[in-house]
User: Fold these one by one.
Assistant:
Number 1:
Amino acid sequence: MDGSEQTAAPTAKAFKSEYKPVWCPGCGDFSVLSSITKALSEWGRQTEDVAVISGIGCSSRIPAYTSVYGFHGVHGRALALATGLKVARPDLTVLATGGDGDGFSIGGNHFIHACRRNVDLTYVVMDNEVYGMTKGQASPTTSPDWTASKLTPHGTGVSPFNPLGVALAAGATFIARGFAGDPNGLAKLILEGIQHPGFAMIQALSPCITFRPEQRDWKKVVREAPVGRTDDPSRAGRMLMTDDGFNIGVLFQTQRPLYQPDLSGNVPMVDIEAKFAI
Ligand code: SF4
Ligand code: MG
């Protein structure tokens, strides 16, 4: 090589680590892992240019199953860690991964503020409407009439959290929903999220076949969103507050200044806050 040639992008397989996932056979997270590695290969950067950060849960094991830099952090703190890393190392491509319990319950506050800050991150949430790793308790996205958990035998009686509606209200600039049963389509969404300059929220419907076996039927109801993406928050809001949670595709995309603080020091707090304004 004369120094002007570029190194070829690693294959999707090269973005996987030597470790075999310990997930239950048939778990949707296998497909999501494949979608992430396919998207990274198509993104075209080297393994050392990428970091995957997670919290705790079945899906939060993903950093161990990739060959990029990774950090398996504490519960609900994936976005805090990813934000710090991206701000300190803007040259890296940074993904945060995790589940609905990790991201929307203990990590809910970080989720809101990550949407608001618009740091250039891609957040992939494997949503199965249950805490899988701790053996099947209701999570923030569980429907109120789910009675299979011994902890909530009469259902939760509580409205489920609407992650994409919250993301829109909090200022996320890229909002998409994909499905583990459509790994190629999900890979495209993740690649678009990585390419998007700003905070990209991707809800990946990922069945937990052990504690929510009825989610095998999601493949019968998931469909392409009937309308294409919009940059109009009012239209997106109407759609996200009224859809049944099974429309997939990029649903909202807009542009807003990135939050990237001056790392040289001596930046007045008022200037930093001004960059957060929505
Ligand atoms: Fe996947 Fe559910 Fe098994 Fe966890 S418990 S690995 S989410 S199928
Ligand atoms: Mg879950």
Number 2:
Amino acid sequence: MAEIRIKDVAKQFGAFTALHSIDMTVRDQEFLVLLGASGCGKTTLLRIVAGLETASQGEVWIGERRVDRLPPRDRGISMVFQNYAVFPHLTAYENIAFGLRMAKLPQAEVERRVTRTAELMHIEQLLKRYSGQLSGGQRQRVAVARAIAMEPDVILMDEPLSNLDALLRLEMRAELKGVLAESKTTTIYVTHDQVEAMSLADRIAIMNAGRIVQADRPVEVYRNPAARFVGSFIGNPPMNFLAAERVDRGRWRVAGQVLPGPNATQDRIEFAIRPEDMAVGEGGIPANVRVVEPLGPHTLVTADVGGQLFRAVLDSDIAVAPGDTVSLVPQPERIRWFDPETSRALQ
Ligand code: ATP
């Protein structure tokens, strides 16, 4: 069992609070992605779990052991960083074997593990090469193989694909997912790339300004953002938001249309809809089209609704042009509502 429990972990750098009381459990064998904009605290949290940074308060548990006072090497973790940290003076084989030799494993066991992880990462034929003779993608595979060969309880990865070119990233992303599922290792993976997060994660923890705003399955995070920030951060283009005024109990006026919504007592709340959850039809939200971008499978329309930017992803057969006014009908079951005071979702 290698469940990771982060309890009330906070971090101050002088007067600056990088992490506010974080509570999170990563389940045994789960692949959890920490996602957020630059500076939100992802790396700091990962480094605290790794033992490369000390928390100002709180506890970290891995399985049944409290580890936050242990040195990194005693925590049962392996790490993979963005810059690979593969030793240039060693062959791929010796790089993968490095930690195993440090742990004084018998040669037969070193051989077995290097061979197995090299097969897993498709680098069997590169084992004799020095890392200077490897491409970036191959070096990255060596770094991942080295982490897995340790058979750790936990693997921590910090933007491991961000130095690779776009095509290789896609390829490695798919491969990593398969390899880590097979190795059954509990994983925390840091990225600011939402597509990477959506495609890899069992669960995504979305961070903003030192807090975890929502931790949920990718589809949940996308469909049911718990906070306005999540809706505006996930999705490209992001969710649209419009002011909603209370008409009477459970009915709200949005851009001149009256829509059924939550039984909230506030006078004003926020209406939200994803761009792909609308179609052109009768009696919808009147939108003045500004830009039309035909993208092949669909057309992205950027419009003005009451002075606000509003985007819709429409069927590519729809004929619209800048200057047109279209009526955009939201799919009722896809509408979300937010409290403007707390920014939290309303039911
Ligand atoms: P990125 O994606 O850019 O790596 P991140 O989400 O991983 O960002 P962190 O590296 O965790 O962000 O940094 C969180 C905040 O803490 C940032 O505002 C950063 O400037 C600050 N910070 C990190 N390390 C230190 C330090 N040693 N001293 C002072 N401030 C720090």
Number 3:
Amino acid sequence: MSRRFLIAGNWKMNKTPSEGHELASGIGQFVKKDESVEVVVCPTYPALDRVSQAIEGTAVKLGAQNLYPKASGAYTGEISAEMLRAVFVKYVILGHSERREYFAESDDFINDKVKFSLENLLHPILCIGETLEQREAEQTLDVVKKQLLGGLEGVSKADLNNVVIAYEPVWAIGTGKTATPEMAQEVHAFIRKLLTEAYDDNASQKTRILYGGSMKPSNAADLLAQEDIDGGLIGGASLEVNSFCDLVDAARNAG
Ligand code: PEP
């Protein structure tokens, strides 16, 4: 089954609204209207509206980096799905390792957000991945299984269609260390096998599994050539027009 490549930029806590507007405008000029690759940018909350304006009329889609799983109310500092949809957000990154680590987000809480996003017509990008300590203790597959099945608990087969998984080994995020294509493929194939067991082969084959962790133009082609790698969630290399567009190009060529 052919899955459409997805290249998503996670800007993290970078770019003011005007810087974001400039970056998104540059990306928008590069991405074709009938683009073979799906392209998503995920700015900070204050930049969402300006970035949304910058990509209007282009094929670039907007993502957010988080949400709170309640409709509205007394949740100081949080953002609702409705607010995100109001500025045309389509995707939302959930369970990123930085949120798991610095904000103590559990699989249960992430699962609430995944389900809430789906109920509110947003596509979750569910991030999972092991730390270096866990890899060295040979716990990678156990950790990935717990985070995947925990994050997807109660998600129906129909809804899985709207979910993207991102395998991000924590030791590779922002470190310059990338998993080798073989290491990444092994875990991606394992994730697909888990999806087949939890749902069925058809649902599993349709689900996109992104790789994240120091993906850059120099290593993207080898990673994207792997059978079960369907794109990338990009941090550092998403902050400049040229490097991000080179990654879009790598995905075009891999398709
Ligand atoms: C990320 O934060 O999702 C990520 C993959 O970052 P980087 O590309 O900088 O490793």
Number 4:
Amino acid sequence: MKGSKFYVTTPIYYISGDPHIGHLYTTVAADIIARYKKMRTTNVLFTTGSDENSLKIVKAAQKAGKEPREYVDDEVEKWKNFFKSFNVQYDRFVRTTDEDHIKAVQHVIKTLHQSGYIYKGKYEGWYCVDCETFWLESDIPNQICPSCGREVHWISEDNYFFKLSAFQKALLDHYEAYPKSIEPESRFNEVVSMIKMGLNDISISRSSVQWGIPFPFDEKHVIYVWFDALINYLTVTGYPNELDTFMYYWPANVHLMSKDIIRFHCVIWPAMLLALGLPLPEKVYVHGWWLTSGEKMSKSKGNVIDPNLVIEDLSKETGISTSLAVDVLRLFMFRESTFGDDAIFTDARFTSRYNFDLANDLGNLISRVYAMTHKTFNDEIPAGTIFSENLRISILETITQYFDLMDHFRFKEALEIVWAFINECNKLIETSKPWELLKQNQLQLYKNLIYSLLESIRIVAILVSPFMPTFANTVLSSLGARSLKEENLAFGKLGFNHVISQLGVTFPRIKTFQSEVPVSKKKEKVEEKKEMVDIDLFQKLDLRIGLIEKAEKLEGSEKLVVLQVRVGSESKQIVAGIAQHYIPEDLVNKKIVVVNNLKPAKLRGVESQGMLLAASNELGLTLITPEKEIDSGSVVK
Ligand code: MSP
């Protein structure tokens, strides 16, 4: 194998539940990385898959009245179709029941046994079936799993153990040498302190369970599901038989996942690799959780966002095709979240992102430029050159910054750079006044402008293509320019005289949108009635219009934001519990209603000198803002 390579993985999923936006997020992130790397002509291996040898599966199969094998064969199709419908182009969907995986796992066990890293012993302790995790007595007051909150079970059986304890120093040395191998930094620190607290050997077999990969030299045991699952990352490279591809692709360039499974990936997995004498992955990138109503999504809480429903609703509401709606959700997930932090899904955020970024910014740019091309050139691309030196510089800078940010998985910022460029193009239309150029008979300048804008749209389409592949291909083919490769990011690749096909309104605006759990499905709330007050009491309140000048999340708090609010000539600090509903930077410059004469109080040690007004229900929270423009400090009565 030749040339540069990039190997990216997602966790392999437990397929006993339905996929939701959290699973989609990791998998689309990997797809974005894979498409981006392919744009830059790297050989990519992108894998995802299913973790099937777990007790969860046995239980779910029983419930469905099926044999485990029949059950997983049925379920896995759902997951594959799900990813396919979101335009995920993985190279391999590995199943832990696949023959080559079973062979790879058994090879690892034999090798580690021969080198003395696996030994037999007695395991007594607590186990959580849902997380497939062994817990120490000290971890579980009340016999409740600290990860999922479900009951744990006592296990006492003869097991095989892996000598994890032998790798404490080697792991600490590795992480000291490669501090960037776990990102974000906070996760790196978490892992290092986990290792410093000491490592115990771990049980890696179960004798009371039949479903799973048999131990190669003791068939009474099956291999512990996590030990088996982690090895999928080797299986897909051809390990241990196809040495060429294995040596080419291994080590993985990045393992993606969320924070719940870092102990397995950053402690146990590298120790297994060290024991095998294999290089460690270049990076584990840990992203945050998608939350709804401030909580991690889970089936039991009934707050799961079903991406299929989002697509269906969006397509119904706007009339765009489902494949374009898929692009919109893919874009939203990465424009909205900072990769590494938690993110909140609300209809309001989804709608405003769509209306601002797509209907307004990108959609408008395309429709204005295409309309001018239609009107003056009968849809033919005019022979032009770059409109201005500024535009040339701006294109070059956009591409350089985009590459740098994408290389570091800073998707949100990469998209911000692209959108800043889109808006620059929109501004260029206003400042260059094309209709006046025509009136003044400056035809060549006008041609240069239209050609440059069409070129800019083509370049934007390539840059957003990892996120919005359908959109990118539609735009490129309308321009007669199909390639998504990096070399086509250069200005001037668009051929003259091609007749463009008009795209109509690419992103019609959304007026209403409803994709969260319907209110009817939520628990009924008892209306709280308050006692009547007279007007004097109400008039004691000094309600004013305030202008938010600064907003920052309060460190260590999931809910609180610290706001600096201007109320007339005064500036005051207000601590508000709105972090799960607004992104701080979006609050700046908003006008709100402030209770100005509330006695100061301390929240989490930070002084709050007032309160803001907001309305909330089960679907979310909205700030009360003035309907017309009005000065800060104005009295509300
Ligand atoms: N089977 C194990 C992984 C084995 S990998 C060798 C497992 N499976 S899982 O189905 O529970 O998937 C967990 C992964 O799904 C997370 O690490 C994350 O990538 C993704 N997500 C599941 N819920 C999520 C959110 N609410 N938000 C973001 N991603 C989350 O653990």
